[in-house]
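Recap from last week: sequence in, structure out.
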Amino acid sequence: MQQHGPNELQGPIRGTAAWWRGMEAQPEHLDDGTPIQSPSTKKPRKTRKDARPMRQDLVDRVRKEIADGTYDTEEKWETALELLLERLDCNE
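Predicted structure tokens:
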């Protein structure tokens, strides 16, 4: 039998048929008093102020290379394999 700790599962959520269709306000707490944290009640994530804008020219170039079949080159594969082997050697 699987045993879950007090913070691993939430529920059960009870509501009327109208609540499930979104016609009534959501309950704020579960039957045991635990606050409900659903996607609709969570605050939106803040964006970083110093986030750089997307480089559309780079995105377009990479998409074109992938479509043309020229994005993966022998040199890129060899570099990736070398880095992978270095990481595996460091973990021994």
